[in-house]
Amino acid sequence: MQNNNPTKLILTLYFPVLISYMLINSPIISYFVAWFGSLFIFYTTILSPAAIIKTDLPIYKQIMRPIFLLQLIFAGFMCVTSIFYFMDHLGYRYLTEINYGAQFKENEQTILIASCQRMSLLAHAALVTGMLLVQKNSIRLKSAKTFESDDFLIWLSIIVFGIGSLTQRFPSLNQIAIPLTIVGISCAAVLFVKGVNTKNMKYLGIGASIFIINFLHASLSGYKEPIIINMIVIACVFFPYYKKLILYLAIPAAYALLYFLPTYNNTVRQSWSGEVSAEEAQDQAFENLNSKNKEQIEETNWSFLTRRLSEIEMFTQFVDYVPSHRPYYDWEIIESSLEGLIPRIFWTGKPNMETVSMQRVYDAGVAHQMSSVSAKTRPVVDAYLSFGIPGVFFFMFLYGMLVQHLSDKAEEIFGGYELGCVIMFNSIFQGLWRGNNFEFMFNNIFWGYVIMWFLFALLRTIKVLKPVFD
User: Fold this and answer.
1) Left (φ > 0), alpha (ψ -120 to 50) or beta: where does 54 sit?
2) For the CA atoms of the chain, what is the radius of gyration?
3) φ, ψ for residue 96 (rounded to 5)?
4) Environment class of residue 294 by beta-carbon count within 10 Å: exposed (0-12), middle (13-18) or buried (19+)?
5) Which stretches are annotated as coiled coil (predicted)?
6) Helices (H), 269-311
7) 457-464 long-range contacts, CB within 8 A, separation 24+
8) Among residues 185, 228, 215, which one has the least CA distance to residue 427?
9) Do residues 240 and 248 lie in contact, with contact meaning Cβ atoms separated by under 8 Å?
């Protein structure tokens, strides 16, 4: 039977946190306790008999809800990927010791890494605590689809994807353009899987076309994240229908992405200088992905795994800087984030949020002001910079409550899991999967909420959704 009292489960999540802080004087052991603590939280909240999971759908049909997808992505990046950087710090590379004969000695960086890992674990526990406390086991739906057919997804996908693509040409409309484009892509992914599952060539053709076009565009961007996100989305929508196939493909696909993607993207970025086109850079990238370049690929990948996939090195630099060399920011970051919500049309002198957020990166020495690197902070870092360890717990607790509420609200007003959670929540609020600095995250939440209600009103107006009366 479903246990509706989360108190006991929540208290259990903090055991590894407590143990890791008790071992603070043994930083290596403390780090590994904190690292395994996140795996413990994953197991306890997803796979264990004590896990509190909604009972309206089988588990495999609700994997895009926050307790599964968002937790795995957010905490996976925040907590689990740090193992590569830490092993590199200990003198290992791809699990092979490279400092032969040299005895490793703990130093200041070891202590900083362990401290950041403990805070990351605390953030993970707080995130899940917030989710569990506000999660509704049953949601009273306020809407239902007017038609049995899913044809409306075709028009929704084409129209929303088209509007999003057009508005992307105007930088000032990115707040609207990006969420709308992602809604269109998610509709296409759902149509794609419905077409495959039901052999409906109309759904298959339209869904596959939009999704593949977007994937090709992502492959020419020079960024890794859009490619990875596309793979995650398509895997998640196919999973309920092809569980074993997706599970069998997950590890080799992840390995292939991590092995080839860093080198591929580094080559594609040649097009940024304008000397070659994106297509030419892509051709060169495929040529570089062969066995003759194995050493270069492994070098690029290890750099990616230790300093790009994991951002714990950046976290340690901030912890070293604040509060030793600068006091905590208190409400300063929050205030600038709230200012960022005001449209520039109403405030011509509004500061550039990219510049504002990057200033603390420059101040801490994480990046040089003359470099082209955009090393923006993540939610846990901004929470720490604001109020220290209490700030990490408080803000991540609120984060968990917020994402769960937004997911439940989307299901409530859009009439269920597929349209509400899969398409709307995980598209409009996709930026919350991994999080961003407070300035950009507050913006995503506020304007995402506006867009969600706008799309709800639109679907009600064109009679795709009808109200449900008790």
Assistant:
1) beta
2) 23
3) -110, 130
4) exposed
5) none
6) 278-288, 294-304
7) 459/143, 459/152, 459/156, 459/414, 460/143, 463/146, 464/145, 464/146, 464/147, 464/152, 464/156
8) 185
9) no
Locate tokens 């930026």: which residue? 431
Q: How far apart are CA 420 and CA 250, in angstroms?
A: 26
Q: How far apart, in whole angstroms, are the C-alpha atoms of residue 134 and residue 408?
A: 9
**Backbone phi and psi for residue 93, each to the nearest 5 degrees, phi listed first:** -140, 120
pLDDT digits (tens, 9 = 90+) for 22-62: 999 999 999 999 999 999 999 999 999 999 999 889 999 99
Locate 11 and state its tokens: 């208290």
Q: Tokens at residue 441, please? A: 């995250």
pLDDT at 224 over 70: yes
- pLDDT tens, position by position, 231-277: 899 999 999 999 999 989 888 888 777 777 777 777 766 665 566 66
Structure tokens at 317: 């630099």
Instruction: Specify burial of residue 458 (Cβ count, 10 A radius: 0-12, 13-18, 19+).
Output: middle
Query: What pLDDT, in 10s, does the model give residues 429-445?
Result: 999 999 999 999 999 99
DSSP letters along 393-405, please? Answer: HHHHHHHHHHHHH
Mean pLDDT of the region 160-185: 80
Does residue 249 or residue 297 have the better pLDDT?
Answer: 249
| Angle of the 152-167 helix axis to the 438-461 helix axis, nearest 10 | 140
| Token digits of residue 187 | 């509709």
118 and 34 in contact (C-beta within 8 Å)?
A: yes
Q: What is the pTM of this model?
A: 0.91
Contact 427, 411 (CB under 8 A): no
> Going by C-beta distance under 8 Å and a sequence separation of 6 or more, which residues neighbour residue 306?
84, 85, 88, 313
Give the span between the Cα atoms of 43 and 362, in whole angstroms: 38
360 or 102, which is more confident: 360
